[in-house]
Amino acid sequence: MSWDSYIDNLIAQTKDASGTTHADKACIIGIDGGAAWTSAGHANALKLQGSESANIARCFKSKDFTAFMTSGMFVEGQKYQFLREEEGKVVYAKKKGLGAVTCQASKTAIVIAHCPEGSQQGNTNKGVGVIAEYLESLGM
User: Fold this and answer.
1) Is it the case that residue 95 has pLDDT exceeding 60?
2) pTM over the 0.90 mark
3) 8 A C-beta contact, residue 80 and residue 95
4) Do 4 and 28 touch, CB atoms closer than 8 A?
């Protein structure tokens, strides 16, 4: 099964009233070890590098975000400043000039999306939430 259509769905969910999308890249990784569910070949794929996905998965699996708080969150080779986490399921991070990252976990996956600088992270949060909650409703 290809999960790449979920990238398109997530980005579509970030549209505002004028039709502008507020996420430009997304991916889904497994919560156990960070294995990619979506492919890097998708035009809007968020391409995690090296140990980035494993590090993100480890924090979500343990619900311990200290590593993000002290060292930041690395996505596509860039260090994003940790902003906050909610209920051990959602993490927000930002990097001036690059934008923001929203991550939300379901039972078995972590949905991650990037919001470009100048776009509304709240809309990206909504898109990530829709996909993560859908996966959760499927028991995933």
Assistant:
1) yes
2) yes
3) yes
4) no
